[in-house]
Amino acid sequence: MLCATSAAFVPAYAQEADAPAPQTKAPQPPKVGEIAPDFELKAIDGTKVKLSEQTTKGPVVLIELRGFPGYQCPICTAQVGQLINKAQEFSKAKAQVILVYPGPAEGLKDRAGEFVRGKDMPANFYLLLDPDFAVTNKYGLRWDAQNETSYPSTFVLDNTRKVLFAKVSHSHGDRASTEEILAALPREAA
User: Fold this and answer.
1) Which of 31, 48, 63, 103 lies 20 to 30 Å from 152 when distance is taken between CA atoms?
2) Per CATH, is 32-184 categorized as 3.40.30.10?
3) Is the whole-model pTM more than 0.70?
4) Exposed e or buried b per residue across 34-60, where buried means at least 16 C-beta atoms within 10 angstroms of its C-beta
5) How far is CA 33 from CA 63, 73, 114, 155, in A?
6) CA 54 and chain centroid, separation
7) What is the DSSP letter of 185?
8) pLDDT per residue over 82-135, tens digit each?
């Protein structure tokens, strides 16, 4: 009986020590209506690009590519080609198109250079390097499996970084089409 009642006299701080540590929740991709986290990354040309500064110019189309999971993703290549083909429509909507290329810091710039080689990047398109998946992790888009890097994703943001459209693909395909993206741009901008 002494043992049963002695637990009641254990100081509160000692009882707290036995409690399980609170679990930190992994970041989740931003949802429609939420504010997308701000970030700053270097573009392939070395200039710094900050998301919140880009949204002051108009809507932003934020595309998370797969980076280099051991090869240049042919679906990413096709997707970017389709976006470039509609560059004038994005420009008319005053939209900035930010392509995030994630991967290990070592060799990332070279891999990204291979990805855009031969592509004419429009003035309102930015290929940003995400070394060691910093932004990918912040956005909850890390696809942590063998030969994978990130979930290919598309977000359309307004001038306050509010998410107007979000599509996160949990496969290599099933990405937002260029038409879906253009339709999601704010009406006053489109």
Assistant:
1) 48
2) yes
3) yes
4) eebeebebebbeeeebebbebbeebbb
5) 18, 30, 35, 11
6) 15
7) S
8) 999 999 999 999 999 999 999 999 999 999 999 999 999 999 999 999 999 999
Closest CA to 65 of 162, 158, 148, 145: 148
Question: Who's near 77: CB < 8 A, 6+ residues apart?
Answer: 115
Instruction: Give me 149's structure tokens.
Output: 């890097």
For 147-184, how does the pLDDT look when each residue is reduced to its tens digit (9 = 90+)? 788 999 999 999 999 999 999 998 888 899 999 999 99
Distance CA 95, CA 185 (A): 8
Give the whole-angstrom CA distance, residue 24 versus residue 150.
21
> What is the C-alpha to C-alpha distance for residues 170 and 48, in angstroms, rounded to an integer?
29
**CA distances in angstroms from 89 to 76, 78, 126, 182, listed in the order given:** 20, 18, 16, 8
Residue 156: both structure tokens together: 């359309």
Amino acid at 154: T
